[in-house]
Amino acid sequence: TFLILCSSSGGAYSNWWCSLFNADLALSVAMTATSTLISAFMLPVNLSFYVSMLDSEADVAIPWGALMQGVGSVAAAVITGIAVSTKFPQWKEWMS
After folding, report:
1. How far apart are CA 74 and CA 31, in angstroms?
2. Which residue has the higher pLDDT, 60 or 66?
3. Apex CA 59: angle with CA 55 and CA 65, to 5°?
4. CA angle at 12 for the pair 9 and 16, rounded to the nearest 5°
5. Which of 15, 29, 45, 51 is the most buried (most CB within 10 A)?
6. How far apart are CA 67 and CA 61, in angstroms?
7. 2: how many CB neighbours lie within 10 A of its CB?
């Protein structure tokens, strides 16, 4: 569990800080989305590498459902945000 936690991407909390201090929130969200999408493929690679260093005969069970649920929710939020800001630019002032 500890290896999975350390190999996973983070960043959702940084989005809150960016929003709180009027930093570049769009950049923060885009970087979080990118790191989450990349982590869907890199997490198994990292996990396999680290576990093989600890025990060469160990088998790793990766929770693919939960991983894809996280990736899907981030992708859906980013796509929805882009679609809303493109179709309804007047809403940007009201939402920020």
Report:
1. 11
2. 66
3. 135
4. 155
5. 29
6. 12
7. 6
Contact 14, 32 (CB under 8 A): yes
Helix 25-54 × helix 64-87 angle, to 10° = 170
For 20, other C-beta atoms within 10 Å of its C-beta total 9
Q: Supply the Cα-derived Rg of the chain in whole angstroms.
A: 17
- Read off the pTM: 0.48
Please report where in the chains the tokens 């885009």 appear, as a residue. Answer: 30
Q: Determine the Cα–Cα distance for residues 29 and 20; give it in Å rounded to an integer.
A: 14
